[in-house]
Amino acid sequence: MITRVVLALTLVSGPLTAAPVPLEARACPVAMPEGTRCGFLVVPERRDAPGTTIRVGYAVHRSDAPSGDPVVYMSGGPGSASIQLTGYLAALFPDRDVVTVEQRGSRFSKPTLGCPETVAAMLDRLRAPGADMARGARDCRRRHQEAGVDLRGYTTKEIAADVVDLRKALGYEKWNLFGVSYSTRVMVDAAAADPGGTAAVVLDSFLPQEVSWYGDADRNLDDTVAALGIDEDFEVMTGRLNDDPALVPTTDPLTGRAFTARLTGDDVATVLAEGLHDTSVIAAAPALVGALAEGHDELLRPLADQTGPGLASHEFGLYHAVQCQDEATFPDRSRLFTVNVDRAVCAEWRLPASKPTKASTKAPVLVLAGQYDPTTPPRTARPAAERLPHARFVEFAGVGHAVFLSDRCGARTIAAFLADPEGWKQPCDPSVRRLPAVRPGDLHVTGAPYQAMTAPWLAAPAALFVLASLAQLVTGAIRGRALTAFAGLTGLAFTGLAADAVWGLTKVNETALAVGVPRVLELYGWIAVGSALLTVAALARARTIPNSLAATVAAGFLVWWWSWFL
């Protein structure tokens, strides 16, 4: 049962700096490290029209030996959850209290502004062109209005005010603000509104207020594709699929049912714009896009499978409430369906545009950017950092979005900065690319490994071949049948070499397996052929049932290997 807590001294130590905002204790909604407590901050839904109150989720992890100001973290989105990262951040900052705060309306706040209606409409758009986004938007807004939600209260300004109120309620004199992507705007606003309570600010994947989210979206993707050196293949791929969309089997994240997505080139471009946030996808992108340009549509399956969960990961009611008020300007045309969807929702919701603000801070600021970030690129983050009075900018090679989650050097850089914001020195080399690029020709292109991972029974021929080879080796050795034993040994040698090659690729970049396998497997396949020939020779010498079974398994495996896997 939720209990109202007026003073938060039972959660954290530190003198109250202002009249407390009410807090409510709650059970943590996800697994947390020991020493973590969760709660709700109770605030007005609209501070300009007090009356209705809402609850903003948060978690506090107390350090066993705090030696510095706490860190408060918020995820991006808008609409992404934060609390689930408490354990990771507690390990990153072991000598500080860590506070993770949700955005109002997010998954671990109340109310939660989900919008399955618009998610369903977006998925319908992938089933067939002409899906009615306006209807989904109307249904979502009507449902929230009937529940008493005033969407005008869900803006960056209000979310930033929640951060300030939480510091006061928890009783911290000062803390360090840590935002990523969208929430960098929140943290800059919070620092400007609460200068006395801000020790330092970390802005990872900085999205400056003056940058047009939608106006820059197409250019950001084009720039990233060009920087990766895949622009020609990218245009061939998108042009081919726009002319002849691919039909790709995938799963509806809302119902769990299988359906067939119809992916145009622009749809694939949109999915890649999100996928290129991930450093492993960036490294595999040259090989992936090159293969898609050549017509390997089987590689679209993993992209389609990630689209649904990606759409379900945000609370789109909150996302669109913020975007439709704070990002009211749209380009006339975009190749990205996310931009076009947002335009349709905002046209239907007709929320008032927020008044633009020019927030800044005099606190020390660290700005981190990924070299290939397709959403908040260094092109816009660097000059914005230079306009902040006490900011330092660091770009990380080979990295995409959310540097602290993608790059160990990025995480170490943040920890070193907060340890000494004024005398900070870079603890590692950000110019070193951690993952090497996978180029066209580095892999044998095949969608089989991904399909086998999603449906393990597809790998049954390989498992049977291994078992048959092991049985041949053992029985041949016991009964003194050298040919049979050597056939089994050869089959196991093939298995070991192939497994080692695949494992080596997995250790470097597991995502690359969604594109293909090491080319050396083509050579290793001939070892399997040798094993099969030895098995046939053993069968010719002794027509026994075990030899017949081994020969049948070997023949089936070779058909599977050469016609399906490779």
Describe the protein in words.
The longest helix is centred in the last third of the chain and has 28 residues. α1 links the parallel β5 and β6. Strands 1-2-3-4-6-5-7-8-11-12 form a ten-stranded mixed sheet, with helices on both faces. A two-stranded antiparallel sheet has the order 9-10. The chain has a two-stranded antiparallel ribbon with strand order 13-14. α2 packs antiparallel against α3. It has 566 residues and is α/β, with parallel strands linked by helices. It is built from 20 helices and 14 strands. The protein has three domains: 210 residues, Alpha/Beta hydrolase fold, catalytic domain (Rossmann fold, 3-Layer(aba) Sandwich), CATH 3.40.50; 137 residues, no CATH class; 121 residues.
Unreliable spans are 1-19
Strand proportion, as a percent range, falls in 5-15%
Q: Which fold name fills CATH's third level, the topology of the largest domain? A: Rossmann fold
Which percent bin holds the helix content?
A: 40-55%
Number of domains: 3
CATH architecture annotation name of the largest domain:
3-Layer(aba) Sandwich
Spatial extent as radius of gyration = 28 Å
Main sheet specs: 10 strands, mixed
**Quick one: how many beta strands?**
14
- Would you tell me the structural class of the helices and strands? alpha/beta
Q: Say what oligomer this is.
A: single chain
Overall average pLDDT:
91
